[in-house]
Amino acid sequence: MVLVKNLVTDNMWLWERGKFMNRKFLIQEMYQKYLDGEDHSLPQEEDPFWEPVTDIIVGTGNLFMTHLAYGLDFDDKISITDYKGQEVGFLYIHLTPCAANGKILTEEETFVDDPSNMVGKQLRFKVVVKRVELNLNRYPNGLRVKYKMFTEPTFTETENVIGTIPEFRHTKIFLIDEVLKSHLDYFEHGFVVFMVIGVQTDNNVSPAKANMTTKELRQLQKPPVTGQRRRMSVVGGLNEAPPGKQNDLFILRKKMKRLEQKERRLKELCEEWSARPEQDQQFEAFFREVYTFAYSKGTKVAGSNPNRRSRDDDQSDTQSLYLFGYEEEEYLEQKMRANPNGQNGKRHRNRPGTRGQGSTRPGTMANGRQRSEDTPTNQTSKACVIQ
Questions:
Q1: Given this model, what pLDDT does residue 225 score?
Q2: Which whole number is the average pLDDT over 301-310?
């Protein structure tokens, strides 16, 4: 089914696929004439964009009849779903066995343990359609309910009722002179379909919409943005990020990994120092180590990903190795021995916290310049791998 909507009157229609395809070809033919400069105007009856106003099925609800096989009543609401299968509201119905004058019989008078005991007997019941509650009532001209019982050749309709929550108060009594096995099969496996129908007219044309373009009318149909949150999965990665935010999400995840590494190492430092003998618990040195580690960025060792596009493309490096503390110092010393001229652009420094000619404060280099973000610092930690 295809839903068609008039943006000026808000009237809607449901087209079958064949009808939609036929209209599509007519629209393409009109557009081709427009491109060729020919007259593409058509009379209203042949206009593929025009459709006579008809009432529309808002949704349907199914009422199962199993309770009637045992002589019981049903007094509850049933779910109303639209052509997409989405719930749009509820219909309140009461179906119960009754006497000839419509009086509701008690359960003691009608209940049977075995449905087969009803075969050959007379059954009279009545249907009461109480009200309908829609999630969004867009039908100011009213609603009505239409249904067909299995014993009836035609449909039964309620009166058209206008209101936010229409109260139908519809009642109809049905009679089965002799219950047959086919009736019991229907009670056990069948159901009655209740259709909620919206009344539509051409009289609700807004003067403001009459002079608007199609683009402007489509803008009015969009719901207002009210700070809605986009659901993102932590494991989902970049594919679930909002458009244009994939790179920001990648950076945030990298930062989160680094912070997790630091947190683990801080816990290890506390455990290591708490396990030392009391005479070796020099908390001044402990403070220097924690301080150095907390303000360190670590040294990144290039990964061996064969699919990496370039050395500077951080996003393509799916596996990176970061060194902290003693491992970082040993790594830098090996690079200095392998490249004594210092072509790698990084100089080895004394460990923070030492005193002497080569000592530096955290945050500065040995030559007195301010340390950049990419300049590694020596820390007491273990190597960590980021996937």
A1: 53
A2: 46
Contact criterion met (CB below 8 Å) for 129 and 197: no
Query: Is the pTM higher than 0.90?
Result: no
CB 80 within 8 A of CB 133: no
* Helix, coil or strand: residue 199: coil
CA-CA distances (angstroms) from residue 39 to 25, 138, 324?
Answer: 17, 37, 78
Indicate if the pLDDT at residue 122 is higher than 80.
yes
**Residue carrying the six token digits 């009808």:** 19
For residue 275, pLDDT beyond 70: yes
320 φ/ψ angles, rounded to the nearest 5 degrees: -130, 150
Rounded to 5°, angle at Cα 353 from 299 and 371: 45
| Each residue's pLDDT tens digit, 29-38 | 989 988 888 8
| 290 token code pair | 């924690």
Q: What angle do CA 117, 118, 121 make, to 5 degrees?
A: 125
Q: Where are the alpha helices (DSSP H) in 47-139?
A: 107-110
The whole-angstrom separation of Cα 341 and Cα 337 is 9
Cα separation, 118 vs 183, whole angstroms: 10
